[in-house]
Every structure is written in structure tokens, then in C-alpha cells.
Design goal:
The chain starts with a helix and ends in a 5-residue tail after the last helix. It contains ten helices and seven strands. The protein is globular. A hairpin with a 2-residue loop joins strand 2 and strand 3. Strands 1-7-6-5-4 form a five-stranded mixed β-sheet. By secondary structure, the chain is of the alpha+beta class. The protein has a single domain, classed as Nuclear Transport Factor 2, Chain: A. 35% of the residues lie in helices and 19% in strands. It comes from Nostoc minutum NIES-26. InterPro entries: NTF2-like_dom_sf, Pathogen-related_defense. This is SnoaL-like polyketide cyclase.
């Protein structure tokens, strides 16, 4: 499909940067336009797929990226272009269904992962959860479509999320490894490709286990060290 043909598609399944540029009246969470330049650089260097513009895979990828951007940065769900707002529902691993307002208030991390041994969603706000994972993955946490198994109206697809664990996660040391999540989703969409519902399936436990694999940070360890250790260092021979 040519660029001209692609531009005839609904805005929300075009490039995410174009959606941002066209969202002139949006209420932005941080009072500024989101900047995905670092994400685009990571995608260019580390994606395992390169879907041709206008293919079903590229359209699904653009739609989900637009949805993710709107959830993360547009505070008013009524301004989200990617969904049918009054009907939209999302669930994870067959769990509770949430509305667009739920997402805008609590954030995707809190609703998609809930409470567990290594992450307490009930103790996190939208802002604190976003800050936590931005600290954990300072180079970003890109997302790509791997395969699309069925087209509209029920789009079933496999995806990959990944990031370089170079920042501290809570009080756990970074392993410097690439943390990868592989999952599947089912998106029910309208004729003009707006999302009515989303079902996500992925292993929360495996993801969080990787974030605690490096053990407690050195500052935690020092807290339980010998109280006289600093005194003994005075007499350490060179």
C-alpha cells in the first residue's frame, strides 16, 4: 500500500506521531506532547519484525500503539480516538473487565498486573507506577506485533514487549539483561477499526520474577552489615 493509500486509513491506525500531531485539543497528562523519539530509535534497532505499511500487521501495530499512547498521556478518555468509549472494556488473563475511565485513573500497570508478591497495584497510583517502570527501563519499553492470526472484527495477534533492565526496580538491583514479555491479545473492533474490547494474555509472574532476579541493592545489603565494618576499614592495609 502506498503512502497516499495509507493516509486514507482512519487516523488512529496511522503512525502514532501523526495522531499526536493531529490531537490539537487534547488534555495532556504532563502538559506537553509525548515524545517517542527514543522509542522509535529502539524499535529501529531492536524490532524483530518490519511490517510493510498498510498491511494488517502494521495496522494492528499502529492501532495498539495509538491506544497505549492515549491511555498514557491523554487524561480525558473522551478524547481517545482509538476506542468506542461508551462500550470499551479491557481484561487481562480472563480477569475483571475495566473501562476507559478505569485506565485513565489507575494506569495500565496497575490494572493489568494487580497485586502480587513483587508488585502491589493497590499501593500504586498512575503516576507512581509510571515512574517506577520508567526508572526500571530508562531506555524505554517498546512493543511490537509478531503475528496476526485473524482480521476484523475479532483481531487475534501475538506481541512482544521488551526493555533493558538497567535501572533499579523498587529495591532490586538491575541485571542489565533484556527483559522480554511475549503475549497474545484479542481486539474486537468496529468497521472503522476502533477498539470495542481488548483481552490480553501474558505471564505476569515471569515478568516480575525477572525484575527481582538481581537480588536486593547494595544499599539494602549494607543496612544489615556489621555495624563495625566502617571502623575496621580504617585499618585496612593498602
Amino acid at each position: 500500500m502506498s503512502a497516499t493509500q495509507s493516509n486514507n486509513l482512519p487516523l488512529w491506525v496511522q503512525d502514532r506521531d501523526r495522531v499526536i500531531a493531529e490531537s490539537t485539543d487534547a488534555q495532556w497528562r504532563y502538559q506537553t506532547l509525548p515524545d517517542y523519539s527514543r522509542s522509535k530509535e529502539n524499535l529501529a534497532n531492536e524490532s524483530t519484525r518490519n511490517h510493510l505499511e498498510g498491511t494488517l500487521e502494521a495496522i494492528v501495530e499502529n492501532l495498539v500503539r495509538t491506544f497505549e499512547m492515549e491511555v498514557s498521556f491523554k487524561t480525558n478518555p473522551q478524547q481517545w480516538l482509538s476506542i468506542v468509549n461508551d462500550k470499551f472494556r479491557v481484561s487481562t488473563n480472563g480477569g475483571a473487565e475495566y473501562t476507559a475511565t478505569d485506565l485513565a485513573t489507575q494506569g495500565t500497570y496497575n490494572l493489568f498486573m494487580a497485586d502480587s508478591a513483587n508488585y502491589k497495584a493497590s499501593e500504586e497510583s498512575f503516576e507512581s507506577s509510571a515512574k517506577l517502570f520508567h526508572t526500571t527501563f530508562p531506555q524505554g519499553f517498546p512493543w511490537e506485533v509478531l503475528e496476526v492470526f485473524s482480521g476484523p472484527p475479532n483481531v487475534t495477534f501475538k506481541w512482544r514487549h521488551w526493555g533493558h533492565f538497567n535501572g533499579v526496580y523498587k529495591d532490586y538491583a538491575p541485571t542489565k539483561e533484556t527483559v522480554e514479555i511475549i503475549g497474545m491479545s484479542i481486539a474486537r473492533v468496529t468497521d472503522d477499526l476502533k477498539i470495542i474490547s481488548l483481552e490480553h494474555y501474558f505471564d505476569n509472574t515471569l515478568f516480575l520474577d525477572k525484575l527481582t532476579a538481581g537480588g536486593k541493592t547494595s544499599s539494602e545489603s549494607q543496612g544489615s552489615a556489621c555495624p563495625f565494618s566502617s571502623w575496621f576499614k580504617k585499618f585496612h592495609k593498602s
